[in-house]
């Protein structure tokens, strides 16, 4: 038996044999989370051709049958109706208990499973700040935030210490889904061959550093969830115990959930026997009274009437608000609550790109259409998830539309915005970004 399994045996005692059954099987536990910004669970269940079964870890989480293949190519996935997410990975945001209006920082956010879950909970209110230290992973995070239609997010590519010093006392809730030794993923990718106690210890040290950075950005009275997808006690319990010793102004609190099993009284561990591949999460409270969010002075910046005309020519009721700024060639609608001094920080996106200025003209941006609801689009075409038209659109082809559809037009799958095209003479020119298209 290898060192990893020996440790699991001592951790699990009588339950080890049950764990081994999962470990030795090729069928791993698969799931998805419905994105309530774009679709309700009942609607998704009625549109997919396989059965969804609820998980215990979050209201929007479902198991999918292990033989379901290529779900990422489903048009509803392209439309952001759901996020493919290992079921127990949704537990940490449930424990964070985000409320509408909260300012939430997700410090280790790529590829964005938990950030997009937080974004749905905020439902366009408050602010989501998603940070990822690795640049190419931050780009993937951004693309998922766009696909899931989150209008009130900031995506940054910063070191946690640099970022949190600049954002001192600004957040009601912080998630630290820390880089870890990933033991909960071993069954999937045989990474246990790379397992070593030195790696576990270096992950634990790095996690403590990240938590000690994150604490500065949390308001007094705020809550922080630390989570990993590993089983080792040097990470998880070890990191939480050391953090609490070093920071007496923090306490471990009961998150009120019943999934998985308790550890350190209030933290939760999830093993495959509990219905997920494996997760650990602990909720911390920063003592003190919580003060309310800064009131945002209404900006009186004069917006060029050409920009407003463009906005109104494509969307109804200015769905992303009017906090508009032109940065280089991009017209950006910033989140309403974006009042941060970001000089020197690597910000990839704040809010929604409404359009780009190309040779004195304004062209709409893909993310504006994925974020708007169909009802807010002046022109929209709608196709069924199984239609040949939506398949053609996602492949990058031109599609036939009725004669009366004209100009920039949202393309929807069963009423959910996926992208856009430009219509004339009964044809819709494809504007689905090349990097997102399904290859033949
Ligand atoms: C467990 S993953 C996050 C998964 C993400 N929360 C989700 O739900 O999709 C941890 C992330 O931490 C990032 N990371 C690696 N080293 C880091 C460091 N020193 N500080 C902060 N983040 C780091 C990794 O690039 C990775 O994207």
UniProtKB/TrEMBL annotation:
Residues 20-287 form the SAM-dependent MTase RsmB/NOP-type domain. One of its GO terms (biological process) is methylation. It is an enzyme of class 2 (transferase). It holds the Pfam family Methyltranf_PUA. Gene3D superfamilies: 2.30.130.60, Sun protein, domain 3 (3.30.70.1170), Vaccinia Virus protein VP39 (3.40.50.150). InterPro entries: Methyltr_RsmF_N (IPR031341), MeTrfase_RsmB-F_NOP2_cat (IPR049560), MeTrfase_RsmB-F_NOP2_dom (IPR001678), Nol1_Nop2_Fmu_2 (IPR027391), RCMT (IPR023267), RsmB/NOL1/NOP2-like_CS (IPR018314), RsmF_methylt_CI (IPR031340), SAM-dependent_MTases_sf (IPR029063). It comes from the Bacteria. Its EC number is 2.1.1.-. The active site is at residue 229. S-adenosyl-L-methionine binds at residues 108-114, 132, 177. Keywords: Cytoplasm, Methyltransferase, RNA-binding, S-adenosyl-L-methionine, Transferase. GO terms for molecular function: methyltransferase activity. Belongs to the class I-like SAM-binding methyltransferase superfamily. RsmB/NOP family. This is RsmB/NOP family class I SAM-dependent RNA methyltransferase. It comes from Ruminococcoides intestinale.
